[in-house]
């Protein structure tokens, strides 16, 4: 049942993004920013945690989950370090995920010989 809930929650997030791309003039970059910002706002008010309880990885993997991670890490760092935590919290909280994305992206580029889109 956990997998089904994750699939449904993640799928709903992706469907919302697809509808925004198809029915509005928003560019994918702007939709990305909206999703991350929405995740930050919902995470700051502890609302995204309820979605994570329901959807698990279906809520943490998409872009709003990244925004939630930024918000949680920044709030924690501000409590521990004060105002400087505003600048360091998001970096510390998401460094592992960003590093993994860069590393595995580079590794796949080495293995699969990427081509430029014509």
UniProtKB/TrEMBL annotation:
It holds the Pfam family SpoVAC_SpoVAEB. The chain crosses the membrane at residues 6-22, 29-48, 93-112. It comes from the Bacteria. The keyword Zinc does not apply. Keywords: Membrane, Transmembrane, Transmembrane helix. This is Stage V sporulation protein AE. It comes from Clostridium cavendishii DSM 21758.
């Amino acid at each position: 049942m956990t997998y089904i809930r994750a699939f449904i929650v993640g799928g709903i997030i992706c469907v919302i993004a697809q509808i925004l791309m198809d029915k509005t003039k928003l560019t994918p970059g702007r939709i990305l920013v909206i999703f991350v910002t929405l995740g930050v706002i919902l995470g700051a008010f502890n609302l995204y945690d309820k979605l994570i309880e329901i959807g698990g990885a279906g809520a943490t993997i998409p872009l709003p989950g990244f925004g939630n991670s930024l918000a949680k890490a920044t709030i924690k760092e501000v409590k521990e370090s004060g105002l400087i935590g505003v600048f360091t919290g998001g970096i510390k909280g998401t460094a592992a995920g960003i590093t993994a994305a860069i590393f595995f992206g580079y590794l796949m580029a080495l293995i699969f010989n990427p081509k430029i889109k014509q």
